[in-house]
Amino acid sequence: MSATTEAFFAGLDAGAPRLPPTIDGTLRFDVRYRDHTEQWLLRFAAGGRVQAEQSGADADCVAVIDGPLFERLLRGEERLTATFVRYAFTIEGDFTMVPAFEWLLPDMVGARDPRQLAQGWGRAR
Question: In which domain, by residue range, is 19 found?
Answer without folding.
Answer: 3-124
